[in-house]
Amino acid sequence: MEIIDNLDERRFDVSLASLDDHAICVSKESWPGESGGFAGPQDYTYLQVGSDRLPVRSALSSIYCPGGCGEHRVAPHGVLRGFIAYGEFADANAIAAEPRKELHFPVIPYYCR
């Protein structure tokens, strides 16, 4: 897992590289979408800014997809890329002005079925 603070774009660029010889998957609920946000709440993803712990803001209090919401498939030795917008946590300009920030973004890949 690699996380890069992309100050110019006001976002964190995230990538998950597979080191496995088999395809791995990541649920769509736990990976940011095309706009840099999440479909639902994220219990373990947060931004540490100084002594403040900023959770991901979500308009939804929960998400339920019968049979799952889908998954991102990563080919053997492939890479899944995305980004998380600063605005998912708080005001993007205020976050950009902070010299010290740390994104906590646990990802749990699994073998695809």
What does this structure look like?
This protein is mainly β. The chain has one domain: Sandwich (Immunoglobulin-like), CATH 2.60.40. The protein is built from 1 helix and 9 strands. The strands form 3 sheets. It has a 3-stranded antiparallel beta sheet, with no helix packed on it. Strands 6-3-9 form a 3-stranded antiparallel beta sheet, with no helix packed on it. Strands 5-4-8 form a 3-stranded antiparallel beta sheet, with no helix packed on it. A hairpin with a 2-residue loop joins strand 4 (46-49) and strand 5 (52-55). The longest helix has 6 residues, at 92-97.
Largest sheet: 3 strands, antiparallel
Total domain count: 1
Number of strands: 9
How much of the sequence is in beta strands?
A: 35-45%
Q: Please give the CATH class.
A: Mainly Beta
The number of helical elements comes to: 1
Reading the helices and strands in chain order gives: EEEEEEEHEE
Shape: globular
* Separation, N- and C-terminal Cα atoms: 22 Å
Looking at the structure, the CATH topology is Immunoglobulin-like
Q: Using the CA coordinates, give the radius of gyration.
A: 15 Å
Any idea what the CATH architecture is? Sandwich
Task: Summarize the amount of helix as a percent range.
Answer: under 10%
Uncertain segments: none
Biggest sheet, spatial arrangement of strands: 1-2-7
Averaged pLDDT, please? 92
